[in-house]
Amino acid sequence: MRFWEKYGIYLIAITTLIIFTILTPNVLSLSNIVNLLVQTSMVAIAAAGMTFAITGGAFDLSIGSILAVTTSVLCKNVPILGIFGAIVLALSVGAVLGVMNGLIVTKLRIQTFVATLATQIIYRGGVLIYTQGRDSDLFRYLDIKVIAGGRVLGLPVPIWITFTVFLAGYMIYKHTQFGMWVRAIGSNEEAARISGIKVDRTIIVIFVITAVTTVISGTIYTSQLLTGNGRLGVGFELEAITATILGGTALAGGKGKFWGTLTAAIILALMKNGMNLLGVQDFYQRLATGLILLLALSMGVVSERIQTRGNRATRNQSGDTNE
Amino acid sequence: MTKAVEIVKITKTFPGVKALSNVEMSVKTGEVHAIVGENGAGKSTLMKILGGVYRPDDGQILIHGKAVVIKDVSDSVECGISIIYQELNLMPELTVSENVFITELPKMKATGIVRRGELYRKTRALMERVNIELNPDSLVNDLSVSEKQMVEILKALSHDSSIIVMDEPTAALSNVEVSKLYSIIETLKARGKTIIYISHRLKEIFDIADRVTVLRDGSFVATKDIKSLTQDDIVRLMVGRSVENFYNRDHATFGDTVIEIDHLSCAPYFQNLSFSVRSGEVLGIAGLMGCGREELAKVLYGLLNRTKGRVLINGIPTEVRHPREALRAGIQFVTEDRKDSGIFPLMSVKENLSINIIKKLCNIFSLLINTEKENRLLESYTKFMNLKYASDSQRVMFLSGGNQQKVVLARALAGECRVLILLEPTRGIDVGAKAEIYDLLGNLAKKGIAVIMISSDLPELITQSDRVLVMFQGQITGLLERNEMDEERIMQYATGTHFGEGFTGGAL
Ligand SMILES: Nc1ncnc2c1ncn2[C@@H]1O[C@H](COP(=O)(O)OP(=O)(O)OP(=O)(O)O)[C@@H](O)[C@H]1O
Ligand SMILES: [Mg+2]
After folding, report:
1. Is the pLDDT score of B108 beyond 60?
2. Last residue of a domain, which of B239, B274, B296?
3. DSSP letter at B83?
4. What is the DSSP code string of A171-185?
5. Is B355 domain-assigned?
């Protein structure tokens, strides 16, 4: 049953594509596909960071707030620092927020889920204070549109960025010491510590990665919509986590699937896009997305489930007599 | 000779337990120094202080004559100390080579990309040097416990440290692997390394150690030359009294056949096994790593599914596809893999004991647990097995290794059982407790339980079993009666050089 675990996500992608092609031939038009990939890029890039986190046994729930921070910082600072300067500033702010997440987790010894739940609220509060709850916009600085709208070799820039992020992420994950340490920590943190791995530092870097990938997503977002405010990105972390898990990254840690995450992000966008073309109402779209997610998970996770059952049976060799 | 390690007045307290008090000992450069002591004596705690896992409350450590402060694992590695801990500390989702060299991965300078080929070669070279055969690319998750132990050994050797600590390295190893470890130790010693060796198997201490230090209840008792001691002397130092009739057991009379295994197969682990165990009988199973004996135990307990054959309990063919069904049929199982599958580490001693029979401990409405009954159960097993813990709500993960093993055993015994399957039942258990457990086995057999005991400890098998069944490559190569058992014979069958009665045939 390794097959499903490995290729199931791609089969689901192809199936979804075929279904929508039959229902609405427009899905397969070149302009729609390009459009779709651009839409995908924002969730996908942040999900690449989330794949690192979950592989290392960590969650980052604060990225939705970091997205809002990014849009606000950009919109307020492009007029002052110029596009390049504002992006550098946003990246730095993101990195600092990531380091803060990491320090809270490692120094205060708080579980990542709870720690980033707290910082999600704190960062959200911070950005609302920073913007005084007001929107700001870049309608007079249209140059920034080049990030979301520009093309290189015929392909929109966000697609290039996405591809670069995933390629780099995959190389780091698979082929560098840092990547192995992330897998080691997700696999068995105690053993990693005893083996002499710098666990705390690695975890801090993981949070910097989730924050920085989110800033990249946020930059594309801002350049597309040209507005920023403190209320954006609510639920964004869940979209990234959904793509990561649907892509096959094990929640238990230790096993990440970069290309799975990317494919899953595309599937999610494809379903949204397809249903939009079909004129399905938003309410029904949500219902359908949830159901398909459940279906895919129950199929995709089958092999893992059998394994854990085996393990679990060995684990509590006592069995459960108190049924 | 200079001193490699000097421990000066080290004290360490855990909530409710004084694990070490004012311990003083020293280890000479280039010697094999054994540390022995009962379960909970503080051996592992002392080593964890050397390894930077714990900080001592008080005291000093000198390495090669220099006072050092070991704050974390990397400090310890920097001092030239490598430690094989009692409990496995591996990363299951990583490969063997990644586990071994995780902190010293060969990288390309410019990009930081790990050089896989180089990593593979390094691992291979290390394995060749110490004569260990494993595939560097296998996932550690897929290895058996003894193979994992080998990975731990490789990991400790990868740093080329001058001081190597081994905390019960042989607990999970079979005889052949133990002798492999001996030769590794010889080589290390020849290269001037210092080795600290902890084991409950006193025979090993006499085989390889130069000197031995005895700890008792967190205090230093003595350091002696091994040549000046007998086994009894060590036992007396350890427990403060002599343990009598250590390896003797009354052999009960047998009743009817309780469990019959009929042409049982589980591809690819074992084929066509047939044997039976009578009530009151202890059947020992011997064999080397990978011979299929662990899988046999798992099939009998429903953790693995058989591919062919039958299992009969009291003459009735019984399906056991799940541990629940095994428990219902009266089959109890004590695992070898204590840390991963034996204990519920976060639950208390009491809860670990009562979890299997919780229903019986409940009051009339089967809703609330009757604490009084539960306490009585705990009390009786505490006395019965001489369990040591700080309080009955102490989490099992904080018990010493041997005490954890006793808890696992006690839990199996607390449930009703007709067939008791034991996998390495005395692994990591000190001599005093071992004698108690052997007594216990005798009593259980007298009560009419059929016991299947799988063990790598040959003296244990020979003295405790009524018959010994030997396996090699998934087949039975011999079935020995009491008067036929000796270590040499068992090893011959276990290595497939001879076949005896009970050989199940087939191509090997
Ligand atoms: N982390 C911990 N928290 C609380 N108590 C502990 C902890 N680690 C060890 N202890 C206690 O310290 C004492 C010494 O334990 P230690 O593991 O050093 O014994 P040991 O000599 O290695 O025994 P064994 O032979 O069973 O492995 C025991 O009473 C144990 O319960
Ligand atoms: Mg110990």
Report:
1. yes
2. B239
3. E
4. HHHHHBHHHHHHHHH
5. no
Tokens at residue B423, please? Answer: 């996998």
- As a whole number of angstroms, the longest Cα–Cα distance in chain A is 70
Residue nearest to atom 6 of ligand 1 (CA): B398
Neighbour count for residue B332 (Cβ, 10 Å): 27
Mean pLDDT of B476-499: 84
A110 three-class SS = coil
Residue A204 has a pLDDT of: 97
CA distance linking residue B169 with residue B180, whole number of Å: 12
Q: Are residues B307 and B435 in the same domain?
A: yes
Helices B431-446/B231-239 angle, 10° precision: 90
- In this structure, the answer to whether residues B206 and B310 fall within a common structural domain is no
> Would you mind telling me the total number of residues written for chain A in this entry?
323
Say whether both B44 and B113 belong to one domain.
Answer: yes
Calculate what percentage of chain B has a pLDDT beyond 70. 93
User: Is the per-residue pLDDT at B27 higher than 90?
Assistant: yes
How many structural domains are present in chain B?
2
Q: Which residues contact B302 (CB under 8 A, 6 or more apart)?
A: A313, B320, B321, B322, B323, B324, B325, B326
Residue B389 lies in a domain: no
Listed residue (B248, B246, B198, B205) closest to B229, CA to CA: B205
Question: Could you tell me if residue B399 is inside a domain?
Answer: no
In this complex, do B356 and A319 lie within 8 Å of one another by their Cβ atoms? yes
Domain co-membership, B235 together with B296:
no
In a domain, B12, yes or no: yes
Compute the 3-state secondary structure of chain B and give helix, strand, coil in percent, each to the nearest 5: 35, 25, 40
Ligand nearest to the CA of B428: 1
Distance CA B104, CA A179 (A): 14
Average pLDDT (A182-192) is 90
Ligand 2 centre and the CA of B41: distance in Å? 8
The verdict on B91 touching A (C-beta cutoff 8 Å) is yes
Cα separations in angstroms, B440 against A246, B337, B357, B413: 52, 21, 20, 10
Q: CB–CB of A176 and B335 under 8 A?
A: no
Q: Is B315 helix (H, G, I), strand (E, B) or coil?
A: coil
CATH number reported for the structural domain that contains residue B284 in this entry: 3.40.50.300
CATH architecture of A2-305: Orthogonal Bundle (1.10)
Q: Which of B208, B239, B270 is the last residue of a domain?
A: B239
Residues spanned by the domain of B304: 257-330+416-499
Residue B252 carries which DSSP code?
Answer: P
Contacts with A, B 126-145, CB within 8 Å: none
Task: In whole angstroms, give the CA distance from residue B495 to residue A134.
Answer: 79
Average pLDDT of the segment spanning B275-281: 93
CB distance B62 to B6 below 8 Å: yes
Q: Ligand 1 atom closest to Cα of B389? A: 31
Q: Does B333 touch chain A (CB under 8 A)?
A: yes
Co-location of B204 and B273 in the same domain: no
- Is B284 found in the same domain as B234? no
Distance separating alpha carbons of residues B333 and B152, to the nearest angstrom: 26
Q: Give the whole-number percent of chain A exceeding pLDDT 90.
A: 51
User: What ranges in B267-370 are assigned the alpha helix state H?
Assistant: 293-300, 323-328, 349-354
- In B233-346, DSSP assigns E strands to 257-266, 270-278, 282-287, 308-313, 316-317, 331-334
Q: How far apart are CA B361 and CA A195, in angstroms?
A: 42
β-sheet bridge partners, residue B198: B35, B167
Same domain, B212 and B147: yes
- Alpha-carbon distance of B237 to A32, in angstroms, equals 82
Look at ligand 1, atom 28, and give the residue with the nearest C-alpha. Answer: B40
B17 with B126, same domain?
yes
Q: Quote the pTM value.
A: 0.76
| Residue among A134, A129, A88, A128 nearest A234 (CA) | A128
Spatial CA neighbour of A222 closest among A89, A314, A24: A89
